[in-house]
Write a structure and sequence with these properties.
Helix content of chain A: 25-40%
Number of helices of chain A: 11
CATH superfamily of chain A: Glycosidases
Number of domains of chain B: 2
CATH topology of the largest domain in chain B: D-Maltodextrin-Binding Protein, domain 2
Number of domains of chain A: 1
Oligomer: heterodimer
CATH class of chain A: Alpha Beta
Largest sheet of chain A: 8 strands, parallel, barrel
Radius of gyration of chain A: 26 Å
Distance between the termini of chain A: 92 Å
Order of helices and strands of chain B: HHEEEEHEHEEEEHEHEHEEHH
Helix content of chain B: 40-55%
Order of helices and strands of chain A: HEHEHHEHHEHEHEHEHEH
CATH superfamily of the largest domain in chain B: Periplasmic binding protein-like II
CATH architecture of chain A: Alpha-Beta Barrel
Number of helices of chain B: 9
Distance between the termini of chain B: 80 Å
CATH class of the largest domain in chain B: Alpha Beta
Strand order of the largest sheet of chain B: 5-1-6-13-7
Radius of gyration of chain B: 27 Å
CATH topology of chain A: TIM Barrel
Structural class of chain B: alpha/beta
Structural class of chain A: alpha/beta
């Protein structure tokens, strides 16, 4: 009886397996076909080599490509940057992505951006930062951020940046060291430390030049802010820049990166130590001049206006267009020291669903916002007569 | 034979009755036990610093705005309501949007209340609460000519803000259903267009729609949600007790109508 039961069970198992077989085959075929379709999403053929046509070589844009999953999105972004008439992008190259373990490198994410930028005829200004976990003290990793760079890791950072500089020599010759170190958030939520930042510059300067003699080390752009000394949030950018000079920054950088935003004011609004507006860059340049570095080139690596309807520091879209174009004209006319004026930002890898989305030039579907078209018309010398939207309804 | 009914009573009915009585007693005590209102965990267990430290970017009206008199807005009121429910003092830490999550990670704050939506790339470090507001897109149409699906927009005129998310979605709709898109500079102009009978519908975010309706209280319109953009609070993943307490307080505020009243106050 028992052997009979076993026989019946065995036969049921065999039947079940037989009935599953077609499904298994269908699943296998499905996976095979999906792979076939999925492949083109990741491997993108290059365009024929492109060249940027522009009448305004100052025009530049900050991209956010490093977190893109699909190579096709990187390519499309860079095609549109070229078509807009910008010949240069600023892009973030995070240390944590390329050196996940000490002296073990994975350049693949960086390579695909560089490959497509070159293909589109674009120059790259690289921004370096973001600390891997192994370069932070183990006890602090849980409560530290990717912006926490302990002084004992400066040499590791310098070694990484020199590897980067050597690998991309001739392709990326402008390297920004860190971002907005005058903000506590960008300094790992620690008290900001101009002396520490100068030590960082000193650590990277020689190794970068040894790896790429043509490289330009750009001092970090400072965040426009009025935070007073001792504030837990950061330090006024003008005070911080002076502190950098006092700490011996001179001779350890080749050019200055700057961030300057217009917020709600037009670009021609006069600068003031108590106001944040586009021409605050002039105050920073005055400090450079006072310390004898007035002849160094300046790269405005972030600027622009925001047109979110509910951000308190935004303007309406038509003003954003007007102010941005006027800002380019202002820089062209009055800022001979400004090498590039880069708009923040081309497109985000994912929407924030908040006001930062309205800094972008195109939306997630690559639909140009009015600002994209306006910059394109400006850079290509086209007329801007065509209206993008209907006039306000009147009853 | 006469003993049989008694045997039935002793062997089946009596034990069954006893069991039912016991079950009833247990159920009654359980109900009573669970209905007792117990004090939550002490504030120090929920918030290690003895106060609810709230990270907020107070530059986003009407959710949080900084003025010389202090911080105001829906998110500010919500934080105060949650803190009151938990019996904790509240302290706001105003910062830029970019620094919000890092401030949570570095223990500068206990919770973020700043018109945030789920960021899936952060869910290994962050716990999100229940949503308290949907800022997604709404299709606005006149109440006497309701349009509630994109199919209803066939051969109609749809007003929207040029270059916005609404524009992005409407262009996708347009591929399936022929319609005329009327692009305007501002969401309020798109709503003007509908109100002034120049369009049959407008696609705008729900916040713009609500604020516009406040300005035109007699305008009889229908809002049909089209997308979700759910605002929620964020806490650290390794502070489960904080998340649990805040989420419970939020659920109570949703249940008792407090949040609806706060939304009505600001939007």
């Amino acid at each position: 009886m028992k052997s009979n039961q076993r026989g019946m069970m065995g036969s049921m198992w065999t039947q079940s397996l037989r009935s599953l077989l077609p499904w298994f085959l269908r699943l296998s075929l499905g996976i095979f076909l999906f792979r076939g379709f999925a492949e083109p999403l990741t491997a993108v053929p290059l365009d024929p080599p492109q060249r940027v046509i522009t009448q305004k070589p100052q025009v530049c844009v900050h991209t956010r490509l490093i977190d893109e999953v699909y190579e096709g999105v990187i390519q499309r972004s860079l095609q549109m940057v070229r078509e807009m008439g910008a010949d240069t992008i600023v892009e973030f190259f995070p240390w944590a992505y390329a050196e996940p373990a000490k002296r073990q490198y994975d350049w693949s994410n960086f390579d695909r951006i560089v490959k497509h930028a070159r293909n589109q005829g674009l120059h790259i200004i690289a921004r370096m930062g973001l600390v891997p976990g192994w370069a932070r003290p183990e006890a602090e990793v849980a409560n530290s951020t990717l912006n926490t760079l302990p002084a004992e890791s400066y040499d590791d950072f310098a070694y990484f940046v020199s590897q980067f500089a050597g690998r991309y020599a001739g392709v990326i010759d402008q390297i920004i060291i860190w971002n907005e170190p005058n903000l506590a958030f960008e300094w790992g939520f620690q008290q900001v430390d101009p002396i520490g930042y100068v030590r960082l510059l000193q650590a990277v300067y020689e190794p970068i030049h040894a790896a790429n003699p043509n490289a330009k080390v750009l001092a970090a752009p400072l965040a426009p802010t009025l935070e007073p000394p001792g504030s837990p949030n950061g330090l006024n950018d003008l005070l911080y820049l002076e502190a950098l000079y006092e700490a011996g920054m001179q001779g350890h950088y080749d050019a200055m990166a700057m961030h300057t935003y217009g917020f709600t004011e037009p670009p021609e609004a006069p600068p003031s130590t108590t106001a944040l507006n586009f021409r605050r860059a002039e105050l920073l340049h005055e400090i450079m001049t006072r310390y004898g570095d007035g002849d160094l080139r300046v790269y405005i690596t972030e600027t622009g206006w925001n047109d979110h309807p509910r951000w308190t520091k935004a303007v309406r879209p038509s003003l954003r267009v007007q102010y941005t174009i006027d800002a380019f004209r202002w820089a062209e006319t009055y800022w001979p020291w400004a090498e590039k004026v880069c708009i923040w930002a081309f497109r985000y890898p994912a929407p924030t669903n908040n006001y930062p989305d309205n800094f972008t030039l195109v939306n997630g579907d690559f639909q140009p916002r009015p600002i994209y078209t306006a910059i394109q018309n400006f850079a290509l010398g086209r007329s801007t007569e065509e209206a993008l939207w209907l006039p306000a309804p009147s009853g | 034979m006469a003993a049989r009914p008694f045997r039935l009573i002793y062997t089946i009915l009596l034990p069954a009755l006893t069991l039912w009585v016991w079950l009833l007693v247990i159920a009654t005590f359980s109900l009573r036990w669970f209905s007792i209102e117990r004090p939550g965990p002490p504030v120090r267990e929920i918030f290690p610093y003895g106060e609810m430290r709230v990270g907020v970017d107070a530059s986003y009206a009407p959710f949080a705005v900084a003025t010389a008199e202090g911080l105001f807005g829906l998110d500010i009121d919500l934080a105060q309501a949650i803190a009151a429910r938990l019996g904790a003092p509240v302290r706001f830490v105003n910062m830029g949007f970019d620094g919000l999550y890092d401030s949570l990670k570095t223990d500068q704050v206990d919770v973020l209340i700043s018109a945030l939506v789920t960021d899936y790339s952060r869910t290994n470090e962050v716990l999100y609460t229940l949503p308290y507001y949907n800022a997604g897109l709404v299709l606005v149409s006149r109440a006497n000519q309701p349009l509630t699906r994109y199919h209803d927009l066939r051969d109609q005129q749809l007003a929207l803000e040029f270059g916005s998310e609404a524009d992005q979605i409407a262009r996708r709709w347009q591929r399936r259903t022929p319609m005329t898109i009327l692009p305007y500079e501002l969401p309020s102009y798109a709503l003007d267009s509908l109100r002034l009978q120049q369009a049959q519908a407008a696609l705008v975010d729900s916040t713009s729609a609500r604020l516009y309706r406040r300005e035109h209280p007699t305008w009889n319109v229908l809002f049909t949600p089209m997308t979700d953009s759910l605002y929620l609070l964020a806490t650290r993943r390794d502070r489960g007790q904080t998340w649990e307490a805040i989420n419970r307080a939020l659920a109570e505020l949703l249940d008792d109508g407090t949040i609806e009243a706060l939304i009505a106050k600001w939007l």
